[in-house]
Amino acid sequence: MKKILLAAVAGMLLVACNNVKQFQAPIEALSTQWDAATTGVTDFATMLTQEIANSQTMASGLQVSEDVLKKLDDASKTKLSELESMFQQESQQMATINDELNGFVASWGEKTQKLTELKDGLANGKLGKETQAVITELQTAATEATTQVGTWTERMTQSKAKLAEIAKQHANALAGNSN
């Protein structure tokens, strides 16, 4: 009886070890994918912060002194006001992207904890029944992160170009060369 019990325990340990080993390559690949996605998100966040600061600097450059305003005709004043309003609206796009990014980063942190738990479980030889589901979930999240960074980058680039164009039109209108 002892031999049967010992054989059963040994068999369970062997199955448990094999269970952990089967997830080693997928967890390592996920970890690499996750690190790349994290770098992409972090790099984008840094770039967005800089672009927001640049747009704030541009916005301060749109300020027109009272002395200059007094010298402008009503049409020029209206044009400048419209351009300033357009600039504010477009600046809001950057703020919206930043809000989306902040929400994403919060959920990313929670998912990173799941990856840490997987790696710890792999190192300790103890993975749960949900391991494959968690790997799949995190692979999907990493892919979505990369896609989302691409989308945000495109939106930010478009907004940056629009802000630069509006600032140029503002300068031209102020100089009396409106297009």
Order of helices and strands: HHHHH
Low-confidence stretches: 5-18
Task: Based on Cα principal axes, name the global outline.
Answer: rod-shaped
**What structural category characterises the helix and strand content?**
mainly alpha
What is the makeup of the main sheet? none
Roughly how many Å is the radius of gyration? 28 Å
Total count of helical runs of at least 4 residues:
5
Explained architecture:
By secondary structure, the protein is mainly α. About 90% of the residues lie in helices and about 0% in strands. The protein is built from five helices and no strands. The protein has helices at about 1-20, 25-60, 65-70, 75-125, 130-175. Helix 2 (about 25-60) runs antiparallel to helix 4 (about 75-125), helix 2 runs parallel beside helix 5 (about 130-175) and helix 4 (about 75-125) packs antiparallel against helix 5. The radius of gyration is 28 Å and the shape is rod-shaped. The protein starts with a helix and ends in a 5-residue tail after the last helix.
